[in-house]
């Protein structure tokens, strides 16, 4: 359990390392994030820090959330997420968390919501090979084939991979490397790709 930061996925580009090799990186606008609330074992049965990120127009803020932010004496934020930590004594409400939390070459985990693909078949969703294209097959080339279990148990077992909704789910990509930290512009450059679409919310935390 380690501290992290919230950010917005800007997009991908490539930069050159010291050897002149092109490195694909994802640009993330990370922070600054405000600590909105601190969870303690005495009050909440667990230790965590709640961070707020992103500006929000006052007219779009609901009355309950407006009252919540006023109670915490923190400016309203668009997103709220929690990071589990071992010790909350180092943090206080209103404190700002910035990209200075990370260093070049550090290993991190990035959490985001994957792109939604809508309803997908078994070939796209699970990588099935499909039905042979010959030998009398008609209009079943991308079908899953048999899904039953003969006469016993005579039903489709739970967890059978079938067509259905694909994407739009929480994904964690582990052990990514921080290529560069731009504290002046609140940017993180992370090697490789991270889950989610552009402008989507991502959580970056230090790998345990």
Keywords, separated by commas or semicolons:
single chain; mainly beta; 4-stranded antiparallel β-sheet; 9% helix; 38% strand; extended
Please characterize this protein's 3D structure:
The chain has 208 residues and is mainly beta. Helices cover 9% and strands 38% of the residues. Strand 1 and strand 2 (22-30) form a beta hairpin.
Short description:
With 208 residues, the chain is mostly beta strands. It is built from 3 helices and 12 strands.
**Order of helix and strand elements from N to C terminus:** EEEHEHEEEEHEEEE
Query: Mind describing the biggest β-sheet?
Result: 6 strands, antiparallel, barrel
Estimate what percentage of residues fall within beta strands.
35-45%
Number of helices: 3
Give start-end ranges of low-pLDDT stretches: none
- Termini, distance in Å? 6 Å
- The number of strands is 12
Note the overall shape. Answer: extended
Mean of pLDDT: 92
Q: Structural class of the secondary elements?
A: mainly beta
Per-chain topology:
Elements: E1 4-16, E2 22-30, E3 33-39, H1 41-44, E4 48-53, H2 63-72, E5 79-84, E6 96-97, E7 107-113, E8 118-120, H3 122-126, E9 164-166, E10 170-182, E11 187-191, E12 201-206
Antiparallel strand pairs: 1-2, 1-12, 2-11, 3-4, 3-6, 4-5, 7-10, 7-12, 8-9, 10-11
């Amino acid at each position: 359990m380690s501290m992290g930061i919230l950010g917005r996925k800007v997009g991908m580009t490539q930069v050159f390392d010291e050897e002149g090799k092109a490195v694909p990186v994802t640009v993330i606008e990370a922070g600054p994030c405000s600590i909105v609330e601190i969870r303690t074992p005495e009050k909440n049965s667990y230790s965590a820090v709640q961070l707020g990120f992103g500006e929000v127009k006052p007219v779009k803020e609901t009355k309950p959330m407006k009252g919540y932010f006023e109670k915490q004496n923190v400016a309203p934020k668009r997103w709220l997420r929690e990071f589990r930590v071992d010790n909350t004594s180092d943090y206080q409400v209103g404190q700002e968390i910035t990209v200075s939390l990370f260093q070049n070459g550090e290993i991190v985990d990035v959490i985001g919501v994957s792109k939604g693909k809508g309803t997908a078949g078994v070939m796209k969703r699970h990588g099935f090979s499909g039905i042979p294209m010959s030998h009398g097959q008609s209009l079943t080339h991308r079908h899953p084939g048999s899904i039953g279990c003969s006469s016993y148990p005579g039903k489709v077992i739970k967890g059978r991979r079938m067509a259905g909704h694909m994407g739009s789910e929480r994904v964690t990509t582990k052990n990514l490397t921080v290529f560069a930290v731009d504290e002046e512009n609140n940017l993180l450059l992370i090697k490789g790709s991270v889950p989610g679409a552009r402008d989507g919310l991502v959580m970056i935390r230090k790998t345990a």
